Amino acid sequence: MSTSATLSPKALMQDVEAIFLSAGLSPLQAAPLARVIVAGERDGCKSHGIYRIEGCLRTIKLGKVNPVAVPALTQDGSAIVRVDAKDGFSSAAFELGVPMLEARARDLGLAALVINDCTHFSALWPEVEALADLGLAAIAMCPSYASVAPAGGTQALMGTNPIAFGWPRAQQHPYVFDFATSVAARGEIELHRIAGKPLPEGWAVDADGVPTRDPAAALKGAMLPFGGHKGSAISMMIELLAGVMIGDMTSPEALAFLGSTSSAPRHGELVIAFSPDRFAAGRGGLDLTRAEALFDAALDQGARLPSQRRYAARAVSDSKGISLTADEVAMLSRLKDAGLDAVT
Ligand code: NDP
Ligand code: PYC
After folding, report:
1. CA 121, CA 41: separation in Å to the nearest integer?
2. pTM summary value
3. Is 226 in the pocket of ligand 2 (CB under 6 A)?
4. Is residue 290 part of a domain?
5. 314 alpha carbon – ligand 2 mean position (Å)
6. Which terminus of the chain has a lower count of CB atoms within 10 Å, N or C?
């Protein structure tokens, strides 16, 4: 019987990477994938932490992702940097695109990274945080698969479509937010189902369009957008910009292509990077203290900044290790021992 454990981020990274390598992922795919999953677990973002490993293995086993894909970058001198993920996971494609995206954003003031043909399940904050750490402001977005009803509707159409923003700060973690445009990420519904907990009111409707608190019925029905028509419109914008505009799948197309939600979604992603220095040029230069004044004013009212909880969780994980429950330890060991045989 497994007991709970505390692992350093480095030790967890080794375990997760080993699981992916033994499942047939190339080192080029395995390491970036393990990095985003371990970052999620380290920062207390359970919906995109180690619980996602099983879904990745299922996606590999179903043949829906190329485990040895070598992403390819193309650049035509414009502000658009393209990475073809070659049917691999998005993380390797993103890491390949960052240096060119950074260079083009510094050169032109802004640049966009378009990732096509990738399997994408991960949180977006690691991406905008990485760009903000380079001194760039950034917005990232992607569709998912049809699982969210538009405001006023009852059937799954759009994805949970996340959007993230990063803003660089001097000598401290960047300002970052990252959320699904549904009331909650689908991963949260799955975690409620696994824990046998009812959903909060207002998260979902069942297959007949009737409001439900049952996670299993919600997964068969549709989730709801956050903020009613406002979240619904932002979600549609993501379908347009990060689906139609970049020539990749929209959420209903992704679901039709995959045939079910049992594998991780496949589509594209759009990341836009801005050079704040270039934008502020000619206006007295960039004054980051003005941004800090806004943050301070919010904090002074008792508000917290997005990512504050996450950075606090990271500090604990880095100093004391990442706490895993007995079930999570058992899951990791099962996946390590059985590899793809562990998933149905
Ligand atoms: P949450 O609602 O958990 O959090 C959203 C953001 O709001 C975080 O930046 C969070 O910061 C911040 N926040 C939460 N509470 C407060 C508060 N009281 N005051 C200020 N800020 C606050 O996110 P979701 O469940 O919507 O999404 C979770 C993850 O799922 C995201 O990382 C997203 O990228 C991912 N996702 C990925 C998809 C994909 O297809 N790849 C699809 C959908 C979601 P903090 O972290 O510090 O709490
Ligand atoms: O949590 O909504 C979600 C999600 C969908 C695809 C990947 N994550």
Report:
1. 14
2. 0.96
3. no
4. yes
5. 22
6. N
- Helices 125-133 and 90-108 pack at an angle, to 10 degrees, of 40
- Adjacency order of strands within the sheet including 162-167: 72-75, 80-84, 110-119, 266-274, 137-141, 162-167, 175-180
112: its two tokens: 């966009």
From the CA of 141, how far away is ligand 1's center (Å)? 13
Looking at the 3D structure of the chain, how many domains does it have?
1
Does 47 participate in catalysis according to the annotation? yes
In a domain, 128, yes or no: yes
pLDDT one-digit tens code per residue, 242-291: 999 999 999 999 999 999 988 999 999 999 999 999 999 989 999 999 99
Ligand 1 pocket, residue 190 CB under 6 Å: no
What does the alpha-carbon distance between residue 18 and residue 339 come to, in Å, rounded to a whole number? 10
Tokens of 208: 């007949």
CB atoms within 10 A of CB 332: 21
Both tokens of 214, joined, read 């049952």
CATH for 20:
3.30.1370.60
Give the domain extent around 334: 5-182+225-342
- In 3D space, the residue among 187, 100, 90, 85 whose CA is nearest the CA of residue 140 turns out to be 90
Catalytic residue chosen out of the listed positions 95, 127, 188, 239: 188
- The answer to whether position 269 is within a domain reads yes
pLDDT digits (tens, 9 = 90+) for 212-244: 999 999 999 999 999 999 999 999 999 999 999
267: annotated active-site residue: no
